[in-house]
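Let's sit down with a protein and look at its sequence and fold side by side. Go ahead whenever you are ready, and we will take it from there.
>
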Amino acid sequence: QQELPHIKFQIGDRDGHPIRRMKGAVNSCAGVSLGELNYHKAMVEHSPELVAIFKPVSHYTDRNILIGGAKENGEQMAIMHVISYKTPYTARGQPVRITLGLSEDAAAAVLFSVGYLSTLKATWSFDPASPSIHFPVINETYQ
């Protein structure tokens, strides 16, 4: 994940809550946005005002949600919790949230998936002098 491009996405809302930036890797091959469980548990404990939802997967389904990427013992990784962060953005009159599946075995604190990039209609510039990712839905560009 060190070689992937990174963005610092704004989290929090403008209704009296602080705006902070969450740094995450951008992976156009990832099928689901992921995060490392203990990192995000700490975010919930230290900055609960930034969080819209933090629930175990069992709140949504009685099945295990397995994801690609083998653990050291050869087992698949499982999403254990779901977190949704508030953002200062809206799209079509609705708040934009950053939602991540959380696993104890995730290799990155935050990994934005192709689905998330597609939702925000991301466009990439691979210009070596100034590579960038533009998100027209929220009118942000990251270099």
Notes: The chain has a mean pLDDT of 81.
